[in-house]
Amino acid sequence: xxxxxxxxxxxxxxxxxxxxxxxxxxxxxxxxxxxxxxxxxxxxxxxxxxxxxxxxxxxxxxxxxxxxxxxxxxxxxxxxxxxxxxxxxxxxxxxxxxxxxxxxxxxxxxxxxxxxxxxxxxxxxxxxxxxxxxxxxxxxxxxxxxxxxxxxxxxxxxxxxxxxxxxxxxxxxxxxxxxxxxxxxxxxxxxxxxxxxxxxxxxxxxxxxxxxxxxxxxxxxxxxxxxxxxxxxxxxxxxxxxxxxxxxxxxxxxxxxxxxxxxxxxxxxxxxxxxxxxxxxxxxxxxxxxxxxxxxxxxxxxxxxxxxxxxxxxxxxxxxxxxxxxxxxxxxxxxx
Length: 336
What we know:
With 336 residues, the chain is mainly α. It has 17 helices and 4 strands. The protein has helices at residues 14-34, 40-46, 48-51, 57-66, 76-98, 109-113, 115-134, 138-160, 168-194, 199-226, 229-232, 238-241, 247-259, 262-272, 278-289, 292-311, 319-334; strands at 2-4, 9-11, 102-103, 106-107. Strand 1 (2-4) and strand 2 (9-11) form a beta hairpin. Helix 4 (57-66) crosses helix 9 (168-194), helix 8 (138-160) runs antiparallel to helix 9 (168-194) and helix 9 crosses helix 10. The two termini are 24 Å apart.
């Protein structure tokens, strides 16, 4: 058994382990190559988060999905680079919107160089991803464009909030399908499609990716409250401080509306107040960590991972399928 990729994924077949390791190494080289510029400062800013590391969750999914076709097909690695570059670009933009100080255990780009440089660096990464994508054919361009539209739409819907009468939790899950699930789905789709897997396998892996992507984001919501910065790579409570309605807080609001418990209303008043003060934020985190809403969010994460696992059922049994199933377990473990 060899441990590879994020979360300590264990690969039980030497041939699969070699393919995955080789693919991820090629993606890493591709990321560094794609973020080089004739302007040294642009290279430094564009490689800031690449060199900070990261789970490379999306490239790993592309490598595993490619196992259902020809994993050595020439489009597999470039498509994984495209997806990871797109993801990295969104992180630069997200940190500006969230006014985040830390990303992947290092200063965020906006902290180091200011908002303008961070936004423009994200745009630079989008441009480089598009350049690579153009060589993968018009179908790949269309798929990426649709996914990016869904991603941006999800971000806008998150900012706008639910319509009157819409269940905030259902609205939030729709946001997550677009904002996070769409790009992870594309990672699986590209991996399988570029490898020449049959259409049914491509569809199954795409659905799996979207559901796992939602679960991954829900686990992130739990981590924002339950973890420390060493575990998550970013400042705990960032979403709380910015007033972003993550799933545990939405469950808290629903429980407060249904039961009207004084302690819940008091906690909501704290959350709706000024959390720029570190002491107030620490108190909010402490109280949320002890609240049933956090456990409810964990249960939702488990439900989405189980749906992702069930999606894989029609695929033939193989080591790659087992690894994809194990990723479901890893996401559950991530949420505690």
